[in-house]
Specification:
Number of domains: 2
Helix content: 25-40%
Largest sheet: 7 strands, parallel
Structural class: alpha/beta
Strand content: 15-25%
Radius of gyration: 20 Å
Protein backbone atom coordinates (compact mmCIF):
# COMPACT_ATOMS: atom_id res chain seq x y z
CA UNK A 1 0.00 0.00 0.00
CA UNK A 2 1.41 3.38 -1.04
CA UNK A 3 0.88 6.40 1.24
CA UNK A 4 -0.83 9.05 -0.87
CA UNK A 5 -2.01 11.63 1.68
CA UNK A 6 0.15 14.44 3.11
CA UNK A 7 -2.00 14.24 6.26
CA UNK A 8 -0.69 10.81 7.21
CA UNK A 9 0.43 10.98 10.86
CA UNK A 10 3.77 9.28 10.21
CA UNK A 11 4.57 11.80 7.50
CA UNK A 12 3.63 14.72 9.76
CA UNK A 13 6.01 13.46 12.45
CA UNK A 14 8.86 13.03 10.00
CA UNK A 15 8.38 16.49 8.47
CA UNK A 16 9.03 18.02 11.88
CA UNK A 17 12.50 16.45 11.95
CA UNK A 18 13.74 19.03 9.45
CA UNK A 19 13.96 21.32 12.50
CA UNK A 20 16.34 18.76 14.12
CA UNK A 21 15.96 19.75 17.77
CA UNK A 22 16.09 16.33 19.43
CA UNK A 23 17.74 12.94 19.34
CA UNK A 24 16.19 11.86 16.05
CA UNK A 25 17.71 12.55 12.66
CA UNK A 26 16.32 12.60 9.15
CA UNK A 27 18.60 10.65 6.79
CA UNK A 28 18.08 11.56 3.16
CA UNK A 29 19.10 9.32 0.28
CA UNK A 30 20.57 5.83 -0.04
CA UNK A 31 24.15 6.73 0.94
CA UNK A 32 23.33 7.97 4.45
CA UNK A 33 20.95 5.09 5.10
CA UNK A 34 23.60 2.55 4.07
CA UNK A 35 26.17 4.31 6.29
CA UNK A 36 23.75 4.27 9.23
CA UNK A 37 23.08 0.55 8.82
CA UNK A 38 26.81 -0.16 8.58
CA UNK A 39 27.43 1.87 11.75
CA UNK A 40 24.79 0.00 13.76
CA UNK A 41 22.56 3.05 14.16
CA UNK A 42 18.97 2.21 15.02
CA UNK A 43 16.46 3.20 12.35
CA UNK A 44 12.95 3.95 13.56
CA UNK A 45 11.25 4.14 10.16
CA UNK A 46 12.18 4.02 6.49
CA UNK A 47 10.24 5.53 3.62
CA UNK A 48 10.77 4.52 -0.01
CA UNK A 49 9.09 5.33 -3.25
CA UNK A 50 7.79 2.24 -5.06
CA UNK A 51 10.43 2.80 -7.74
CA UNK A 52 13.27 2.87 -5.20
CA UNK A 53 11.97 -0.24 -3.48
CA UNK A 54 12.11 -2.20 -6.75
CA UNK A 55 15.47 -0.78 -7.84
CA UNK A 56 18.93 -2.42 -7.65
CA UNK A 57 19.79 0.19 -4.99
CA UNK A 58 16.66 -0.22 -2.87
CA UNK A 59 16.39 -4.01 -2.77
CA UNK A 60 19.66 -4.68 -0.88
CA UNK A 61 18.92 -1.83 1.54
CA UNK A 62 15.51 -3.33 2.34
CA UNK A 63 17.10 -6.74 2.90
CA UNK A 64 19.11 -5.26 5.79
CA UNK A 65 16.18 -3.51 7.46
CA UNK A 66 14.61 -5.01 10.61
CA UNK A 67 11.15 -4.02 9.30
CA UNK A 68 9.53 -3.36 5.92
CA UNK A 69 9.72 0.20 4.60
CA UNK A 70 6.69 2.39 4.08
CA UNK A 71 5.95 3.15 0.46
CA UNK A 72 5.29 6.82 -0.27
CA UNK A 73 4.30 8.65 -3.43
CA UNK A 74 7.42 10.35 -4.91
CA UNK A 75 5.98 13.88 -4.80
CA UNK A 76 5.19 13.49 -1.08
CA UNK A 77 8.65 12.15 -0.30
CA UNK A 78 10.26 15.09 -2.08
CA UNK A 79 8.25 17.59 0.00
CA UNK A 80 9.33 15.94 3.25
CA UNK A 81 13.03 16.21 2.53
CA UNK A 82 15.40 19.10 3.12
CA UNK A 83 17.36 18.12 0.01
CA UNK A 84 16.17 19.00 -3.48
CA UNK A 85 16.07 15.29 -4.27
CA UNK A 86 16.23 12.59 -1.58
CA UNK A 87 16.53 9.98 -4.38
CA UNK A 88 13.48 8.05 -3.30
CA UNK A 89 14.54 7.18 0.23
CA UNK A 90 14.23 8.74 3.69
CA UNK A 91 14.88 7.22 7.09
CA UNK A 92 14.43 8.33 10.68
CA UNK A 93 17.38 7.39 12.88
CA UNK A 94 17.81 7.44 16.62
CA UNK A 95 20.90 9.61 17.00
CA UNK A 96 21.30 11.00 20.53
CA UNK A 97 24.13 13.46 21.09
CA UNK A 98 25.85 13.62 24.44
CA UNK A 99 28.06 16.28 25.95
CA UNK A 100 31.78 16.30 26.62
CA UNK A 101 31.81 12.83 28.22
CA UNK A 102 31.33 11.17 24.79
CA UNK A 103 34.80 12.29 23.65
CA UNK A 104 37.41 9.52 23.96
CA UNK A 105 40.65 10.19 25.80
CA UNK A 106 42.60 9.23 22.72
CA UNK A 107 46.09 10.56 21.98
CA UNK A 108 46.17 9.27 18.42
CA UNK A 109 44.18 12.09 16.82
CA UNK A 110 43.32 15.74 17.13
CA UNK A 111 40.17 17.26 18.58
CA UNK A 112 38.18 20.10 17.04
CA UNK A 113 36.25 22.71 18.99
CA UNK A 114 33.69 24.46 16.79
CA UNK A 115 32.66 27.84 18.16
CA UNK A 116 29.41 29.38 16.89
CA UNK A 117 29.44 27.54 13.54
CA UNK A 118 25.95 28.28 12.22
CA UNK A 119 26.13 26.91 8.67
CA UNK A 120 25.12 23.21 8.75
CA UNK A 121 27.01 22.62 5.51
CA UNK A 122 30.22 23.86 7.12
CA UNK A 123 29.66 21.65 10.15
CA UNK A 124 29.17 18.59 7.97
CA UNK A 125 32.19 19.37 5.81
CA UNK A 126 34.37 19.90 8.89
CA UNK A 127 33.25 16.56 10.31
CA UNK A 128 34.12 14.85 7.03
CA UNK A 129 37.58 16.43 6.96
CA UNK A 130 38.13 15.61 10.64
CA UNK A 131 37.31 11.94 10.20
CA UNK A 132 39.42 11.69 7.04
CA UNK A 133 42.40 13.16 8.90
CA UNK A 134 42.01 10.75 11.82
CA UNK A 135 40.60 13.18 14.39
CA UNK A 136 39.40 11.73 17.68
CA UNK A 137 36.26 13.84 18.02
CA UNK A 138 34.37 17.10 17.70
CA UNK A 139 33.15 19.38 20.47
CA UNK A 140 30.47 21.92 19.60
CA UNK A 141 29.85 25.16 21.48
CA UNK A 142 26.31 25.84 22.72
CA UNK A 143 25.78 28.27 19.80
CA UNK A 144 26.86 25.82 17.09
CA UNK A 145 24.22 24.32 14.80
CA UNK A 146 22.78 20.92 15.73
CA UNK A 147 24.78 18.03 14.22
CA UNK A 148 21.54 16.23 13.32
CA UNK A 149 20.55 18.98 10.89
CA UNK A 150 19.78 17.26 7.54
CA UNK A 151 22.20 19.49 5.63
CA UNK A 152 24.99 18.82 8.13
CA UNK A 153 24.43 15.08 7.84
CA UNK A 154 24.47 15.21 4.03
CA UNK A 155 27.61 17.35 3.88
CA UNK A 156 29.39 14.97 6.26
CA UNK A 157 28.75 12.00 3.90
CA UNK A 158 28.32 9.79 6.98
CA UNK A 159 31.07 11.19 9.20
CA UNK A 160 28.55 12.70 11.65
CA UNK A 161 27.13 9.19 12.08
CA UNK A 162 30.51 7.76 13.13
CA UNK A 163 32.70 10.44 14.70
CA UNK A 164 32.27 11.18 18.43
CA UNK A 165 30.42 14.51 18.62
CA UNK A 166 29.78 16.39 21.86
CA UNK A 167 27.14 19.15 21.96
CA UNK A 168 26.70 22.19 24.22
CA UNK A 169 30.33 22.16 25.35
CA UNK A 170 31.95 25.21 26.92
CA UNK A 171 35.66 25.49 26.29
CA UNK A 172 36.35 25.13 30.04
CA UNK A 173 34.53 21.79 30.04
CA UNK A 174 36.62 20.57 27.13
CA UNK A 175 39.81 21.65 28.87
CA UNK A 176 38.83 19.66 31.96
CA UNK A 177 37.86 16.59 29.92
CA UNK A 178 41.09 16.51 27.92
CA UNK A 179 43.40 17.48 30.79
CA UNK A 180 44.82 13.92 31.15
CA UNK A 181 46.07 14.15 27.55
CA UNK A 182 47.87 17.48 28.17
CA UNK A 183 46.96 18.78 24.70
CA UNK A 184 48.16 21.99 23.10
CA UNK A 185 45.47 24.38 21.96
CA UNK A 186 45.70 25.98 18.52
CA UNK A 187 43.75 28.66 16.69
CA UNK A 188 44.13 29.90 13.12
CA UNK A 189 45.07 33.50 12.35
CA UNK A 190 44.96 35.07 8.90
CA UNK A 191 48.30 36.74 9.59
CA UNK A 192 50.79 37.18 12.41
CA UNK A 193 50.71 33.63 13.75
CA UNK A 194 53.35 30.91 13.68
CA UNK A 195 53.76 29.37 10.23
CA UNK A 196 51.75 26.13 10.21
CA UNK A 197 54.61 24.23 8.59
CA UNK A 198 57.20 25.45 11.11
CA UNK A 199 55.13 25.30 14.28
CA UNK A 200 56.19 22.84 16.98
CA UNK A 201 54.44 19.48 16.83
CA UNK A 202 52.07 18.38 19.58
CA UNK A 203 51.30 14.77 20.50
CA UNK A 204 47.68 15.83 20.99
CA UNK A 205 46.24 19.03 19.58
CA UNK A 206 42.94 20.86 19.92
CA UNK A 207 42.05 23.02 16.93
CA UNK A 208 39.74 25.93 17.75
CA UNK A 209 37.58 27.00 14.82
CA UNK A 210 35.06 29.83 14.64
CA UNK A 211 32.49 30.91 12.10
CA UNK A 212 33.78 32.77 9.07
CA UNK A 213 31.73 35.83 10.01
CA UNK A 214 32.36 36.07 13.76
CA UNK A 215 35.59 34.17 14.34
CA UNK A 216 36.33 32.91 17.84
CA UNK A 217 34.67 34.39 20.90
CA UNK A 218 37.06 36.09 23.38
CA UNK A 219 36.63 33.23 25.86
CA UNK A 220 37.61 30.63 23.28
CA UNK A 221 40.45 32.73 21.91
CA UNK A 222 41.85 32.96 25.44
CA UNK A 223 42.21 29.16 25.52
CA UNK A 224 44.66 29.22 22.61
CA UNK A 225 48.32 28.37 23.26
CA UNK A 226 49.55 28.95 19.71
CA UNK A 227 48.06 30.91 16.80
CA UNK A 228 48.85 29.32 13.45
CA UNK A 229 48.98 31.06 10.09
CA UNK A 230 48.77 29.20 6.80
CA UNK A 231 51.15 30.85 4.32
CA UNK A 232 49.30 31.97 1.18
CA UNK A 233 50.38 33.39 -2.14
CA UNK A 234 49.12 36.91 -2.79
CA UNK A 235 46.65 38.29 -3.58
CA UNK A 236 44.72 35.58 -1.70
CA UNK A 237 44.21 36.75 1.88
CA UNK A 238 42.25 33.95 3.51
CA UNK A 239 40.68 30.51 3.13
CA UNK A 240 37.29 29.27 4.18
CA UNK A 241 37.13 27.46 7.49
CA UNK A 242 36.86 23.96 6.02
CA UNK A 243 39.87 24.33 3.72
CA UNK A 244 41.95 25.89 6.51
CA UNK A 245 41.01 23.08 8.89
CA UNK A 246 41.84 20.45 6.26
CA UNK A 247 45.31 21.86 5.64
CA UNK A 248 46.02 22.01 9.36
CA UNK A 249 44.69 18.56 10.24
CA UNK A 250 46.46 16.83 7.37
CA UNK A 251 49.74 18.56 8.21
CA UNK A 252 49.40 17.21 11.73
CA UNK A 253 48.54 13.77 10.33
CA UNK A 254 51.61 13.86 8.06
CA UNK A 255 53.81 14.56 11.07
CA UNK A 256 52.26 11.74 13.12
CA UNK A 257 52.76 9.25 10.30
CA UNK A 258 56.40 10.23 9.83
CA UNK A 259 57.41 10.72 13.45
Amino acid sequence: MVIESPHNETLKTIRRLKRCKGDQALLEGPHLVVEALASGIRLESVLMTPEMRRSPVGRPIESHLPFPPLEVRPSLLDKMADADSPRGLLAVAELPRGSVEVLPLDRSGAFLYLDRIQDPGNLGALARVAEAAGASGLALSPETVHPNHPRALRASAGSLLRLPVARNVEVAQLRERLAPLEPRWFALATRGGTDLYRAPAASTGVLLLGSEGQGLSPEVQAACDIALTIPLESPVESLNVTVAAALTLFEWRRRRLHS
